[in-house]
């Protein structure tokens, strides 16, 4: 039985689409809304909701501008978001290790 | 949470990261621009030498062509960066590879010749070899077999040019520009347009 405290997992990041958004933004310097949508296969509405949640948590920031008279939203991961995502990955890996130890002890 | 679910989660995250990091698509504009500009300069050089045009005609041609090339490159670069959907490390590396190659070629041509350490015959093959190197690095970053083939084309062409003499080297170099810069530029441009249409 694993002794890992599951409540320590970041609820903000523990969502497939928000994890995917963070994975995209951690790989690039910045990305436009359309790029994130392509990489996550999300719909416009769904993606907007999740981006807002990440922005409210301080994990990403957005810069809105006009390019060729078209509105453009550019997203960037923050230092807080970077650290939170790394911690999240480490926690997932710890759970895997703990589960594997538990399986070996059975 | 099962181990399998978590491993699948991590695998998914890694895939998204890899996919995003590689996201860079060459639009071929710089290949076309520099292919045309250097092509024009090469033709004018050939005409100048064949017709014994005196004075600094050849230097004037190359100085002006290179300046025009850099101005348009900067304009394209600024416009493309505004329209980019993402800024990746891969994209930056490709940009810096070509800036480095461009400056290297300019130093070889504009310093090497006046310093009389590089003979005229050696300029084209040397610059072709540098172009091969830049294309090779770019091909590895983009994982493009097509650009890798262009790189080998430049290297093989450079090898052949080293054994040629006289003004015909410039003509051969002009043919190489068509084969390994202008034509590939159009191929990359149409591929880029097609990809944009698919993404839209």
How would you characterize the overall build of this protein?
The complex is a heterodimer of chains A (106) and B (200). The mean pLDDT of chain A is 86. Chain A has a three-stranded antiparallel β-sheet. The radius of gyration of chain A is 17 Å and the shape is elongated. Chain A has four helices and three strands. Chain A is α+β, with helices and mostly antiparallel strands and 106 residues long. Chain A has helices at 16-27, 33-40, 44-56, 79-105, and strands spanning 28-32, 60-67, 70-77. Chain B is mostly helical. Chain B has helices spanning 3-21, 29-50, 57-83, 89-112, 120-142, 145-162, 168-199; one strand spanning 86-88. The longest helix of chain B is centred in the last third of the chain and has 32 residues, at 168-199.
Can you give me a brief rundown of this structure?
The complex is a heterodimer of chains A (106) and B (200). Chain A is α+β, with helices and mostly antiparallel strands.
CA-based shape of chain B = elongated
Distance between the termini of chain A: 9 Å
Return the structural class of chain B: mainly alpha
**What is the element string of chain B, with H for helices and E for strands?**
HHHEHHHH
Structural class of chain A: alpha+beta
Radius of gyration of chain B: 20 Å
Strand order of the largest sheet of chain A: 1-3-2
* Sheet with the most strands, sense and barrel status of chain A: 3 strands, antiparallel
User: How much β-strand is present in the residues of chain A?
Assistant: 15-25%
Rough outline of chain A: elongated
Distance between the termini of chain B: 38 Å
What is the share of helical residues of chain A? 55-70%
Rg measurement of chain A, Å: 17 Å
